[in-house]
Amino acid sequence: MKAIQQIDQFKALDTCHQRMHQQLAELADLLERLDADSDSPHCRQKAKTIEAFFSEVARPHHADEEKMVFPGLLLSSNAELVQAVQTLQQDHRWIEQNWLELAPMLRAIAQGEDWVEIAELKHTIEVFVSLCHDHIMLEESLIYPEAKARLAEELASRAKRLTGA
């Protein structure tokens, strides 16, 4: 049962990454629209949706990775793999710090407030988008495949023990 839950959790993590890519694209689109259209209902709604997604979905996603994916990989004898996981852990802290700066600005735009400095917002969005893309790329190219392979090995080993082969 635990193995099925782990497989389902990986599917959920992968799905979340797909949704993150979509929301990062929406954030980049918002960035392009801000100069001409920052107070439009469309921009306000887009800002609200993006802020809600990253606050309510993406942040818990990182916590799930810290609990489910990273611990086993940190025990690896592969120094490159351990270093990659440590880099991702640091990324989580940087993403969180950047988000704590960005989220209030998006909420302000969503509520039609005018205190947001557009140049600062643009810079913060650019940093956030770049950091998230780089982070996801490392997870999807190295960390997730390794964690999934280890899970597959564990499942095969269990099946072998259960069948007595």
Structure explained in plain terms:
By secondary structure, this protein is an all-alpha fold. The protein has a single domain, classed as Up-down Bundle (Four Helix Bundle (Hemerythrin (Met), subunit A)). Helices cover 90% and strands 0% of the residues. It has four helices and no strands. The model has no long low-confidence stretch (mean pLDDT 90).
Counting helices, strands and paired strands, the structural category is mainly alpha
Determine Rg (CA atoms, Å): 19 Å
Instruction: Give the CA-CA distance, first to last residue.
Output: 21 Å
Proportion in helices: over 70%
The appropriate CATH architecture is Up-down Bundle
Unreliably modeled segments? none
Average of the residue pLDDT scores: 90
Report a brief summary of the structure.
Helices cover 90% and strands 0% of the residues. By secondary structure, it is mostly helical. It has a single domain (2-163), classed as Four Helix Bundle (Hemerythrin (Met), subunit A) (Up-down Bundle), CATH 1.20.120.
List the main descriptive attributes of the protein structure presented here:
single chain; 165 residues; Four Helix Bundle (Hemerythrin (Met), subunit A); 0% strand; elongated
Show the helix and strand layout.
Blueprint: H1 2-37, H2 41-74, H3 79-110, H4 118-163
